[in-house]
Design a protein that fits this description.
By secondary structure, the chain is an alpha/beta fold. The protein is built from 11 helices and 8 strands. Strand 2, helix 4 and strand 3 form a beta-alpha-beta unit. The structure holds S-adenosylmethionine (SAM). The site of S-adenosylmethionine has 19 residues, from helix 10.
Length: about 240
């Protein structure tokens, strides 16, 4: 049965696995769970994994089911979508996944430096006219870099070939090393599992016979040089 949007919002607000941090408050101070997600929200120590732009939450749920020993958070600005993932997690009794509704731009107010072990960006919106808004743009990569633990991993899944090419070109300039996921160094059980965890957009892409591109990277800490403006508009600059 289809649940109307307003009813979804009403239910979501009462879900114990959902948070909507007050944006106004975040302008002045960090979120109360910053630095304490494992202790205060999940109530156990475990690797902390964030999915940016989780939409309906399929991928976060998939990770939570396959990796009960990890703590997973799905973040999206659209509450009507998050509702589905959060409701399903409650139905299945999944205690290792939570959902946050907020603009990704507030990320550094939500987490403390070094708090995140992995970030997944699954099928990000390409924002053809405003590449800086993309969840894989240099602006977002700088935020991710601040929040990663020493051995952090950033993952991208996309069906847009130009986005994959953009990431391969830009990420090394943003202080990330692209890993070869076919080698022992770059391949983990989660990397293998990601292929079979479908997201809403992945299902649509596969239905249209599109290829799925997967990129994995790790942050390299230290100074990074400014990125030439000519590269920042790739891959859509004329
Ligand atoms: C193309 S959808 C993909 C959804 C899901 N990952 C999937 O594969 O089915 C992109 C999602 O990113 C979210 N999004 C885009 N920019 C965002 C931002 N700045 N902050 C939070 N969410 C954002 C959108 O609301 C949307 O749900």
């Amino acid at each position: 049965m289809r649940v109307p949007k307003l009813e979804r919002y009403r239910q979501l607000a009462a879900f114990p696995n959902f948070l909507e941090p007050p944006v106004k408050h975040l302008l002045e101070t960090s979120f109360e769970l910053s630095g304490k997600w494992n202790d205060a929200f999940f109530r156990r120590p475990a690797p902390l994994i964030l999915e940016m732009g989780c939409g309906w939450g399929d991928f976060s749920l998939g990770l939570a089911r396959r990796f009960p020993d990890r703590n997973i958070l799905g973040l999206d600005v659209k509450g009507g979508r998050i509702w589905r993932g959060a409701a399903m997690a409650l139905e299945e009794g999944l205690k290792n996944v939570g959902f946050i509704r907020i603009e990704g731009e507030a990320l550094e107010r939500l987490f403390a430096p070094g708090e995140l072990d992995e970030i997944w960006v699954t099928f990000p919106t390409p924002y053809l006219r405003k590449p800086e808004k993309m969840l894989i743009s240099p602006t977002f990569l700088a935020r991710y870099r601040n929040l990663f633990a020493a051995e952090g991993f950033l993952h991208l899944k996309t069906d847009v070939e130009a986005l994959a090419a953009y990431a391969r070109k830009l990420w090394p300039l943003c202080g990330f090393r692209i890993l070869d996921t076919e080698s022992a160094e770059g391949r983990s059980d989660a990397d293998v599992a990601h292929e079979s965890i479908d997201t809403n957009f992945q299902t649509r892409a596969v239905g249209k016979n599109k290829s799925i591109y997967y990129i994995k990277a790790t942050p390299i800490f230290g100074e990074i040089a400014p990125i030439p403006k000519s590269l920042l508009r790739l891959p859509w600059s004329r």
